[in-house]
Amino acid sequence: MHLKSNMKILKTLFVAIGIIFILISVVSISPYNYLIKGVRLVYLKGEKTANYMDWVDFDLRKISTGDQKKSTTLATEKFELNQALTAMLDKTNSGAYLVYRNDTLISENYFRGITDSTKTNSFSMAKTITTLLVQHAIQDKIIGSWDDKVIQYLPWITGKYANEVTLRHLTTMTAGLDWDESYVSPFGITAQAYYSNDIEGVMRTVTFANKPGDKFIYQSGSTQFLGFVLMHALDEHRKLNTEKSVKTYSTISEYAQENLWKKIGAEYPAAWSLDKKNGKEITYCCFNSTARDFGKLGSLVMHHGKNHLGEQVIDSSFLNMAQKPFKSENYGHSFWLGKVGDIDISYFQGHNGQYIIMPKDNSNMVVVRTGHGKDKSNNEPVFNCVKSYIWYAKHPKGESLPAAK
Fold it and tell me: What is the torsional sign of CA 354, 337, 295, 174?
């Protein structure tokens, strides 16, 4: 009797395994094959969305440091986190919280196993990084200008307004893509782009359906197109300059390594997530770095594009323009903008609360926060958590955050 029962259980198990195998096989050859990777990296890890440590499961391209690494200067006396800030950092599942003043680290805090050498996913902070790289390519005359037409670099783009959209439209989120920026649906275009092993194939299905320049709509696809513009420009530059006297680049990561990462004196190698092995960078997200080196990026912007050696890496006039509103009062050229109390701020922002925040005053301050959560319960453009991170960095003794006006 027991033998028959066990045989029945085994038969049911084999049938179930067979059905699962068939389903996986069908999905793997369907347009939804990216779901297999998504399920493996999210749900089988016990998560509900992309995690700032998920980069370890992606194919990567290393971005090395240079010979002139800038060791982080530590304050002799660091300020302690007050109760309100500690509560917010805990509520938002923070991984790192760093505060720099005059390029000196005056507060350095790590949580949940994160350390000063742990890389985390920047998510959409990479949008700002991609924009900085495109600006550098303009300075290098590898790209013409922000007002160049996208189709001049990507002749394969489609849509009613494909001939009109410019690089500026891409970086200011005014490109008018047919793109639903959803982080919930596993069937959405954002998830497809994130988990696909052919990011270019995904982007070739996206059309420029609405008139560019009319209004701000945040769309990750815009920065992925901007990344492809840079990829194409670097390829063309390499083909036109075969003599050894001209420096050329094979990938965006190599360009970032030589013209950004080494120049800011990064302490640790970074890594850019790819769609597949030896593939293409996912440029709307997924630049992976330590919190200290994210702080060095903030310092570059805070110093109007100059690095620790006094070298002008990014043109100051561009950064001045980029940190002003374009079609949204809270967004410029890939920089988020806002106000905390009476303090104007600009910041890099990434999914689930990755931030590099620069107050627009004379404090010479940069605040970095990484983690896996955010508090936006105030229903305002600048979230509660962002307000706490910057306000209590400037008021460590606990002066209360002012109520919204």
Answer: positive
The DSSP line for 276-332 is STT--B-TTS-EEE-HHHHHHHHHHHHTTTB-TTS-B-S-HHHHHHHTS-SSBTTBS
d(CA 230, CA 131): 10
Helix (H, G, I), strand (E, B) or coil at 364: coil
Q: Are 43 and 36 in contact (CB under 8 A)?
A: no
Q: At 363, list the tokens.
A: 């404090």
User: What is the model's pLDDT at position 32?
Assistant: 54
Number of domains into which the chain is organized = 1
Element (H, E) at 190: helix 189-195
DSSP, res 231: H
Residue 4: phi, psi to the nearest 5?
A: -65, -40
Please give the residue range of the domain that contains residue 103.
Answer: 54-394
- Would you say the C-alpha torsion 333, 230, 52, 101 has a positive or negative sign? negative
Q: Residue 32: helix, strand or coil by DSSP?
A: coil
CA distance 29 to 27: 5
- Residue pair 298/132 in contact (Cβ under 8 Å)? The answer is no
Tokens of 191: 């998830």
Residue 77 structure tokens = 């006396």
Residue 41 belongs to some domain of the structure: no
Q: Which amino acid is at 156?
A: W
Q: Is 330 helix (H, G, I), strand (E, B) or coil?
A: coil
- Cα separation of 246 and 58, whole Å? 33
* Cα dihedral 108/111/115/118 (nearest 10): -120
Best CA proximity match to 403, nearest among 345, 359, 342, 341? 341
- Which tokens sit at 94? 């923070």
Q: For the chain, give the number of residues.
A: 405
User: What letter would DSSP give residue 141?
Assistant: T
104-110 and 73-74 as β-strands: parallel, antiparallel, unpaired?
parallel
Contact status, residue 54 vs residue 60, Cβ threshold 8 Å? no
**Residue 260 DSSP SS3:** helix
The tokens describing 321, both together, are 């323009």
The residue to which tokens 């790192």 are assigned: 96
Are 203 and 358 in contact by the 8 Å Cβ rule? The answer is no
141 in a domain, yes or no? yes
Query: Residues of the chain whose pLDDT is less than 50?
Result: 15-16, 18-30
When the pLDDT of each residue in the chain is averaged and rounded to a whole number, the result is 90
Q: Please classify residue 99 by burial: count the beta carbons closer than 10 Å to its beta carbon, then call 0-12 exposed, 13-18 middle and 19+ buried.
A: buried
| Domain CATH code at residue 217 | 3.40.710.10
> Is there a domain that residue 299 lies in?
yes
Q: Is residue 5 part of a domain?
A: no
